[in-house]
Amino acid sequence: MTEWPDGWGRVHLSVTDSTTAEAMRLAGQGHALPFWVIADSQTAGRGRRGRIWLGGEGDFFGSAALHPGEDPGFAALRSFTAALALADGLVGLGISRGDVSLKWPNDVLLRGRKVAGILLESTRQSGRLVLVVGIGVNLAHAPSVDEVEPEAFLPISLAELGVDVTPDVLLDTLAVRFAEWDARLMAEGFEPIRQAWLSRAARLGEVITARLPGREITGVFETVDAEGAVVLKTARGRQHLPAADIFF
Hints:
- The protein folds into 2 domains: about 10-200, BirA Bifunctional Protein, domain 2, CATH 3.30.930; about 205-245, Roll (SH3 type barrels), CATH 2.30.30.
- Helix content is about 25%, strand content about 35%.
- The chain contains 5 helices and 12 strands.
- A 7-stranded mixed β-sheet has the order 1-2-3-7-6-5-4, with helices on both faces. Strands 11-10-9-8-12 form a 5-stranded antiparallel β-sheet, with no helix packed on it.
- It starts with 8 loop residues before the first strand and ends with a strand.
């Protein structure tokens, strides 16, 4: 019997513009939270900073909608719980744990190449904060090099490693692990989540570059702080960056 987290709803669509947009609409219409939306295909997938999320038939397009509490900073920590849940889900599907790493702030890497991205958006339902966690995973296809931005991580799909899995099967394990990590965040705070994430962090202790509007900062990736900001050790001291694009 397939496991499914208690109290979570599930909506499966054949096609939508974006599972995140659909989750926002459902929340606005009073759909009971928490719930997942999954689609076989989407026509206007969203990525970070207004980018388009590319994907093909057989890839995973899903979004979780939940009440995360009223502190936006604490709500944003779900990018870490989602990454951990997805990493657990991939390992549960037969991927070696050593092949999966997490790139701050919200990418999952497979053998050093991007296999998944996470995007957080929020709205309100009856005055309460609603968080939507959008997740895209290259299951059957990965964008070509020509389709990604210069300097972006090379994409990879699970199919390239000989792993054949459907979106529904991935969601079964992802939803359970996300609910578990979210419950732990609510009960124990961010510290155990932070430590678990750091244990899987890509390029921890190595020199990376953080790109911000109008400037770049290069330094050693030292840690992630108690608010989820990346911490770089630079010639000018430690820099805590709550938002940036990271390049290795």
